[in-house]
Write a structure and sequence with these properties.
The protein is α+β, with helices and mostly antiparallel strands. It has 8 helices and 9 strands. The chain has helices spanning 2-29, 51-57, 71-82, 138-144, 149-153, 165-171, 174-196, 209-216, and strands at residues 37-39, 84-86, 91-92, 103-109, 118-123, 128-134, 156-162, 199-201, 221-230. A 7-stranded antiparallel sheet has the order 1-6-5-4-7-9-8. A two-stranded antiparallel sheet has the order 2-3. Helix 2 packs across helix 7 (174-196), helix 3 packs antiparallel against helix 7 and helix 6 packs across helix 7 (174-196). Bound molecules: flavin mononucleotide.
Length: 231
Amino acid sequence: MRWLIVVTVLASTTFTFLYGGFKLVSEVEVGVKGDGWIKLPEPRKRGEISVEEAIEKRRSIRDYLDKPIKIEHLSQILWAAQGITDPIRKFRSAPSAGATYPLEIYVVVGEVESLNPGVYHYNPYNHSLRLIKEGDYRYQLYKACVDQEWVLKAPASIVITAVYERTTSRYGERGIRYVHMEAGHVGQNIYLQATALGMGTVAVGAFYDEKVEEILNAKGRALYVFPLGYR
Ligand SMILES: Cc1cc2nc3c(=O)[nH]c(=O)nc-3n(C[C@H](O)[C@H](O)[C@H](O)COP(=O)(O)O)c2cc1C
């Protein structure tokens, strides 16, 4: 009888460790905090492929598998876009003229594991998302992006907006070009990180600015849309 109890306890501990343990981690890491921020899983600092392979494999992908995005993967791409990589000086993954950081990152979520459909705003400082509005806005975003099908089909899209004054207040007119250069840096990080995760994206620059900004309740002007999905 005693051996039966020992075997049962061992089996249930192993099961909890293998399955229950994993569930617990994701529940804790994606939990909504009291202040309304949805904490994202910690990004990984080591990937499956080299930066050279990611550069070689990067392509604009406009066809995605019908599969929800894992929260770990969205977290990783947001970190690559604008995550804090120098916790002391609060510098980020992409360079910024005078560290003025004019860019804001939004996510239009349709199908992402652990997130309800909605429009979210990314906060690099606590690597979290805040829900701006609930609901699936992919159709509206697709219409705003002049009916580009990949925007409708992608499980989620990242949108980059710019608050120009953060940079032009220091650099004047020249700050405008700095902001656009910075969006390019962020866009390339999104492309390369997506590639490294077996995902695809495409830089979408053709859209009605005001319509995209209205969908986001945006801070700043819309610059770029990046639909995301598995390839
Ligand atoms: C500023 C910019 C705007 C773009 N806008 C769009 C767009 O609105 N729709 C689209 O499908 N692709 C868009 N693209 C993606 C280009 O079509 C793509 O990069 C080009 O065909 C080269 O292919 P590759 O990215 O696979 O190397 C854009 C790219 C850039 C850099």
